[in-house]
Amino acid sequence: MRKGSVKEVLSKIKYDPREDEGNYYIVIEHRGAYGNEKKISVEMIELGHGYFFVGDAQIPYHRILKVVRSDGEVIWETRKDRRGEVD
Fold first, then answer.
1. Hey, is 34 helix, strand or coil?
2. How far apart are the C-alpha atoms of 87 and 84, rounded to whole Å?
3. Domain-by-domain residue ranges, the chain?
4. E strand or H helix at 25, and its extent?
5. What are the two backbone dihedrals, phi and then psi, of residue 79, each rounded to the nearest 5 degrees?
6. So what's the pLDDT on residue 54?
7. What is the CB neighbour count within 10 angstroms for residue 28?
């Protein structure tokens, strides 16, 4: 499941012509609050160096909890548990 950094996974989804970015979404930790998660379509994001962008919002990659295909398969998931501790 977890192969490479989240940015590498998202780059492959967005720029590999064999992938359809409309078939993926990310789940982010919204404003750092436990249990406050938000889904965002990969189509809506633009990749940057330390951040990704959704419209005018700049969000750090470390807020991404997982990348999911539309069929529910988790493609990438953070190693942090919900308390922010690394496994």
1. coil
2. 9
3. 6-77
4. strand 24-29
5. -85, -15
6. 95
7. 22
